[in-house]
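Repro case for the chain-ordering regression, as requested:
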Amino acid sequence: MNIGDVARQSGVPPKTIRYYEDIGLIRPNRSENGYRAFTENHVHKLAFLGRARALGFTIEDCRTLLALYEDENRESVQVKAVAEEHLRQIEEKIEKLQSMRTTLTELVEKCAGDHRPDCPILADLSPIRMSE
Amino acid sequence: MNIGDVARQSGVPPKTIRYYEDIGLIRPNRSENGYRAFTENHVHKLAFLGRARALGFTIEDCRTLLALYEDENRESVQVKAVAEEHLRQIEEKIEKLQSMRTTLTELVEKCAGDHRPDCPILADLSPIRMSE
DNA sequence: GGTTGACCTTCCGGTAACTGGAAGCCCCAT
DNA sequence: ATGGGGCTTCCAGTTACCGGAAGGTCAACC
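-- result from build under test --
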């Protein structure tokens, strides 16, 4: 299979597939003409990677997960640990974003949004008091 | 004032201040010895930038906001527009992350996390059915 | 006066995970 | 043989910095 077919079947774009080869996530063979030659197994792995990335796992997490995926002797606790750590980081991000949202929502509500220059948003960002 | 003082007063690290000069966000003068020479106004701007960045505004947003900040003839609607767009993007990110969290939480709960290899997390990532 | 040590400078490289584009080969159909 | 699509490699750009190396500067201390 050529890269285009694999891209269509796995949902991972050709550029990304080449990148994944560069960083050693997959190792396709080469045809005589120099084209990458993929197997069904590569398609599976790429789809796996696509799903893992969609869940926000880093590439390094993906590397780990893929190794576990292929390891018959894995222990599910290993997988769970990776997922739990990732979950923690997602929750951290959510909290940070929610706190930003709270502040921004307040500021946007307070801002008249008209032709006048006075703006509570700028006032909040400013270290010096703008209008008393 | 030298960069170290400004960094302490504004809360923005020296490296970041130099970077902000590189990309034209601030324009300190130079002393005879080649050191950057900052004024109080630079401290204000940097603190402004620090707050804006902490609210998640991109550097380009910051550039816009700083220009509005310094523009006596700004209209608050301009500021509000930037903030509202940023708010939208934050809300998008939150939604994406929450959806990831939901999925991940389910998977983590389903995973036994013991010494056995069977793992619903891998099963979910896998395009082919793992166990039966 | 020399010598620390804390500053400051520039420049280079790296981060994460790709994406876009250029230059050029390959293959198939007309 | 020519055209179009697909494949290749390589280079550069993205975001917002951080770390480190090599080297100049300054104030203080002996």
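Ordering looks correct now. Strands of chain B lie at 29-30, 36-37.
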